[in-house]
Amino acid sequence: MADRFAHFLAIDWSGAKGPRQKGIALAIADADGGPPVLVDAGRGWSRQDVLALLREDLPDNTLVGLDLGIALPHADCGAYFPNNRVLLPDAPSLWALIDDLCRDEPNLGANSFVAHPDYRAYFRDGIDTGEHFGCDGANHGRGRFRVTERVQAAMGCKPYSNFNLVGAAQVGKSSLTGMRMLHQLRGHLPVWPVDRMAQSGSVVVEIYTSLAALDAGRSAPRAKMRTFEALNEALGTLASPPVAGTGKIDDHATDALLTAAWLRKVAGDRSRWSPRDLTSEVARTEGWTFGAI
Questions:
Q1: Are 160 and 33 found together in one domain?
Q2: 179 within some domain
Q3: Which domain holds residue 132?
Q4: Buried b (16+ CB within 10 A) or exposed e, 170-207
Q5: For the whole model, what pTM was predicted?
Q6: Residues near 115 by beta carbon (within 8 Å), at least 6 away in sequence
Q7: Which of 16, 106, 126, 200 has an alpha carbon 20 to 30 Å from 167's alpha carbon atom?
Q8: Within a domain: 85
């Protein structure tokens, strides 16, 4: 596995409205070494830009990390949407449903899905908390979690439910827009662990930038870095050369830069690909966050 990939691309994703998102940042690290480098779109990234890059311009044998949830919780209730007449057997069928219901929405938006009468009751959307936000139908707590998110919590992180659409730290909207992209990447890129990994070629994994920060010696509350000095200190912990610059830097950029270097460092660790709680059923329905072990 250590020699499997030639490039490591980390994508800090965003579910924000609009044609271009300030929260999207891409960084790439080469297996041959050197500091991670930001991939500049010139005028800022859109979700469609990222989709086009992954479909048409991705370097061979690239490990792609997407900072979003690649599926919704399933194991806790035995279904993504219990009490719903539509039964979805796996993550690709979930991606297809979301993309179909949002097919008329530009910029890979997913607002049509969370507003749909068959699915709104499963989300907390800022106006109300749906009656199915909790697994047992109660409106309580932080919502439902995947198995991998519970492992993240045990590692010291504070994950948020993909059914939560409220607050600055929510990941629901970004994950749903990302699932639209994953559907449109079918046949182009396999997604670990939902799909089988071939012996060669590029692969998409889910990442959580806080896990990279933990391995770089930072605590979860200090995962965000907003200066070159803090970033380069963390990169040094990962045995990566520093990036050029001093003073302030956008934390979306630092998330992408650090995580690209982290992917390069840990991709050869077989334990990262074989988490104890990753069963075949969980892989098929919920997926996993790379590095959650």
A1: no
A2: yes
A3: 91-183
A4: bbbbbbbbbbbbbbbbeeebbbbbbbeeeeeebbbbbb
A5: 0.96
A6: none
A7: 106
A8: no
pLDDT tens digits, residue range 105-137?
Answer: 999 999 999 999 999 999 998 888 888 998 765
Provide mean pLDDT across the span 224-235: 96
Give the bridge partners for 4, in sequence order.
none
Tens digit of each residue's pLDDT (9 = 90 or more) over 253-271: 999 999 999 999 999 999 9
Residues contacting residue 279 through CB under 8 Å, at least 6 positions apart = none
Residues ≥6 apart with Cβ < 8 Å to 100: none
* pLDDT confidence band for 188 (50 / 70 / 90): very high
Shared domain for 109 and 153, answered yes or no, is yes
Q: Are residues 123 and 197 in the same domain?
A: no
- Structural domain count of the chain: 2
> Which residues touch 138 (CB under 8 Å, ≥6 apart)?
none
Residue identified by tokens 């329905």 is 285
Q: Which residues pair with 227 in a beta bridge?
A: 248
Does residue 226 lie within any of the structural domains?
A: yes
The token pair that represents 291 in the structure block: 């590095």
How far is residue 1's CA from residue 234's CA, in Å, rounded to a whole number? 24
**Amino acid (one-letter) located at 23:** G
Cα separation, 278 vs 13, whole angstroms: 24
Secondary structure in 3-state letters for the chain: CCCCCCEEEEEECCCCCCCCCCCCEEEEEECCCCCCEECCCCCCCCHHHHHHHHHHHCCCCEEEEECCCCCCCCCCCCCCCCCCCCCCCCHHHHHHHHHHHCCCCCCCCCHHHHHCCCCHHHCECCCCECCCCCCCCCCCCCCCCCHHHHHHHHCCCCCCCCCECCCCCCCHHHHHHHHHHHHHCCCCCCECCCCCCCCCCCEEEECCHHHHHHHCCCCHHHCCCCEHHHHHHHHHHCCCCCCCCCCECCHHHHHHHHHHHHHHHHCCCHHHHCCCCCCHHHHHHCCCECCCC
